[in-house]
Fold this protein.
Amino acid sequence: MKPSSKHSFFYRNGLGMLFLSLFVVTLGAQALTGWQEHNAEREQDHAPAMAFSEYLQSGHFISATFENFESEFLQMALYIMLTVGLRQQGSAESKSLDEPEEVDREPKPGPDAPWPVRKGGIILKLYENSLFIAFGVLFLISWYLHLYGSWIDHNDQQVLNGLPQDTLGNYLTQANFWFESFQNWQSEFLSIASVVLLTIFLRQKGSPESKPVDAAHWETGK
């Protein structure tokens, strides 16, 4: 079914627009407060303050930003792939234990089907896994940029402390980068486990992420 023209643009796209707006606002707030915090730290080290434009290119900002992106994209990549084959009885976030699911049916070419479905072959095979591939690539890009930013920030601190700088390879073997990664990864895994398990027993009327309010706890899927 094609999008209805009877609804306003915001009604049809409000969820995406709201979260993109929140992303821009909070990223700006992070940049501003991170700049102030970083300059306070530099003042304690008797280093000159950074201009805001300079801070946006600094390892401190790059590391902090992509450290969070990395964990989010890892969360989504794993969630998308693992929910293909794994089940959780009673969860709204699981496929049914026994019934066939619409998402598992073989794609059929048609006039409204996406171009890769009509094309077929290897293009279709890639398209069938394109959501996981996209999040996987975004995770790898974010992981590298987190590593790069954290390394630059680490070496800036080394210079301020009168210590030798580390190579990227040497920094990768140190605990600091992995501590930054694991503290974010574990929180993302906990959030997935929480939504998977809490939807067994709890409800939110009107949300597509919840089972119907009167659904039995053992009923699986939405």
